[in-house]
Amino acid sequence: MSWPILIDVSLIRTTALIVFITGPALLPGYFSVEMDNVVLVLNGREDTKISFATQWLLYTETLIEARKLQHVAVVLLGNEHCNNKWINPYLKKNGGFVELLFIIYDSPWINEEDVFQWPLGVATYRNFPVVEPSWSLLHDERSFLCNFLGTIYKNSSRETLMDILKHDKNNKLCWITTREEWKPQETNESLKNYQDALLQSDLTLCPVGVNTECYRIYEACSYGSVPVVEDVMTPGNCGNASTSPSTPLQLLKAMGAPFIFIKDWKELPAILEKEKSMTLQEKIERRKTLLGWYQHFKAQLRLKFIKTLERSFLMRDNKG
């Protein structure tokens, strides 16, 4: 997310009209005079992004004080370690003006009252496309049991994963392309290779990175390739402090994601052996289940987003 997205939410009775405005020309100071209710989509992943996001919040605060805006919510691409204290003073419950916060990653702040979890989704900033289900996507035999295209960090579980694949010689049955350094942008060639790998693999291996949640999970769903997710909490301040041990991906689990969750990559050889015995028809049915779930997941979150805005913004106004 290179620049903020500004969402004009005009609430009429029980229907929300939402207008998205985004682009490099969108700078603090740009607001349509017709806007009453706004959702800011901000990037808080690193210090430079936080600085720019703060400019937007400070400008929005001046409009609230001048009564030119009525309600404000924020969708926040949070820090991967869940270090998001910088936005705390802007939340209404802390004396600020942000009434609702939709935050990415398993933040301990999530309470389903004024702070909600939002999924990471696909990497649109790397030009990952909207994938429409097709007959071939559902029914074709796929060439590979699994895929992993990504960075291998030193002393990480990704090194363990690669060792296990090589030891069991399953790397010859999977599409594996690795690199030692993360690259923020895709080339046309690398994006095509990645999409082909998802399309041609029954499973997509999703080892943890800085955070357990990654774009790869949602991108695999787009192509009907079942995510095999390393279900462990990464270091930092994420997770629910009231449960021990904390478990990641609470939103996906609560909504019944039909993934394969594993605690250790040593479980992978058995999973791949089971894959080898599955019939094409069984895999087709599994793809249908995954793609159906993913469409439902997105639809339900859209509906929840709208209803939450209506309940907080419109009903509060009616009471007034």
User: Architecture of the largest domain, CATH level 2?
Assistant: 3-Layer(aba) Sandwich
Percent of residues in beta strands:
15-25%
Order of neighbouring strands in the sheet with most strands: 2-1-3-4-5-6
Which sequence of SSEs, written as H and E, runs from N to C?
EEEHEEEHEHEHEHEHEHH
* Computed Rg: 21 Å
DSSP strand tally:
11
End-to-end distance: 36 Å
Number of domains: 2
Residue ranges: pLDDT <50 for 5 or more in a row? none
The backbone outline, from C-alpha atoms, is elongated
Average pLDDT over all residues: 89
Helix content: 25-40%
What does it look like?
It is built from 8 helices and 11 strands. The chain is α/β, with parallel strands linked by helices. The chain folds into 2 domains: 5-118, no CATH class; 124-297, Rossmann fold. The strands form 2 sheets. The chain has a 6-stranded mixed sheet with strand order 2-1-3-4-5-6, with helices on both faces. A 5-stranded parallel sheet has the order 8-7-9-10-11, sandwiched between helices. It is elongated and about 65 Å long. 31% of the residues are buried. The mean pLDDT is 89.
Would you kindly provide a brief summary of this structure?
This protein is of the alpha/beta class. It has helices spanning 47-65, 135-139, 157-167, 188-199, 215-222, 250-254, 268-277, 280-319, and strands at 5-12, 15-22, 37-43, 71-77, 98-104, 115-118, 144-151, 174-179, 201-206, 226-230, 260-262.
Compile the SSE list and pairings.
Layout: E1 5-12, E2 15-22, E3 37-43, H1 47-65, E4 71-77, E5 98-104, E6 115-118, H2 135-139, E7 144-151, H3 157-167, E8 174-179, H4 188-199, E9 201-206, H5 215-222, E10 226-230, H6 250-254, E11 260-262, H7 268-277, H8 280-319
Parallel strand pairs: 3-4, 4-5, 5-6, 7-8, 7-9, 9-10, 10-11
Antiparallel strand pairs: 1-2, 1-3
